[in-house]
Design goal:
This protein is of the alpha/beta class. It is 42% helix and 14% strand. A seven-stranded mixed sheet has the order 2-8-7-6-5-3-4, sandwiched between helices. Strands 9-10-13-12 form a four-stranded antiparallel sheet, with helices on one face. Strands 1-11 form a two-stranded parallel sheet. Bound molecules: pyridoxal-5'-phosphate (PLP). The site of pyridoxal-5'-phosphate (PLP) has 14 residues, from α6.
Length: 375
Amino acid sequence: MAVSFTELATPGVRNLRPYVPGKPIAELEREYGVRDVIKLASNENPLGPSPRALKAVQQSLSQLARYPDGAGFDLRVALAQRHGVTPDQVTLGNGSNDLLELITRAFVTPQHEVVFSAHAFAVYPIVTQAVGAAARVTAVHNWGHDLNAMQALINERSRVVFIANPNNPTGTWLAGPALEVFLQTVPSSVLVVVDEAYFEYARDAAADYPDASLWLARFPNLIVTRTFSKAYGLAGLRAGYALSQPEVAGMLDRVRQPFNVNSLAQAAALAALEDREHLARSLACNRDGMLQLTSAFTALGLAYIPSAGNFVCVDVACDAAAVYEALLYEGVIVRPVANYGMPRHLRVTVGLPEENARFIAALKKVTSSKLQAAR
Ligand SMILES: *Cc1c(COP(=O)(O)O)cnc(C)c1O
């Protein structure tokens, strides 16, 4: 009798649907035989990392035989200084993804519930189900988090609430006062994770966007996550961090792999943090690119969801899967979001001006032939 290893897996894992990443450029070139592919699908910084980060990586190469600093001392001290907290409030992660997983592993059992919103980051259901906990998912309000609905789902079984601010894939954001009131209503035995992966962009885009890290002293159950993958342009190296009370950080530290952040990532993140000019350039590039994209959508008569991130969801007014496919043949990779329950939208990352222009031209071509076919 053949063993079914699927049956042997824990119930949560057995029923998991794996995360679907954006299509890699090399895969598209291989499978579709197209050249000059541009990828606007994973919210990476089109300018790449800070030159200082690259230099730091090069300098670290000679030490590759050594294990990294498992405590991430220098980076944690720098981050603590930046945020006005103590280093024991900083937990480093292999991307902030790692931290989301550490949080459920440290605090959530199959008896617990985890609250998050529909159309929120795909990793929340994965880390919830992986530990066998129940997900309680609220409907969206204007494509954004409905905090009243989230509050209504919190009960004695709730252990973690995940809030992406701004949200991915919708780009919607919560204003400071609303989020603050919500935090006041949540019992302190329920951890609230405010995922600020796009913090730098959102700060630049929306005057009412709050820095949740400033509330750490007031809300002991608050965990704020940040990443070097987005505005800092280091997605390939995997570095993120969480800010929390020292006691919470201590629990995350217990389940963390001893060397979860590699030495190149630590060195690059430290250097990237110091390079404010590169960050400013990246934000300016995003501001201009967002305007370029959204003006084109308006000109094409396509609705979009206003976004505080470095990406935007456009309603292509038909089955987005077909438009996504047609764009692939044009050598343009964007992100279908049907798996997020948004079958008519495509999420596009703001790229360089010429990349945005190529996407817009391809979208125009593809959607106009679609419209003709529909007539
Ligand atoms: C991209 C993203 C992350 C994490 O990315 P890492 O590369 O793992 O740091 C976390 N949350 C949201 C909402 C994201 O979009």
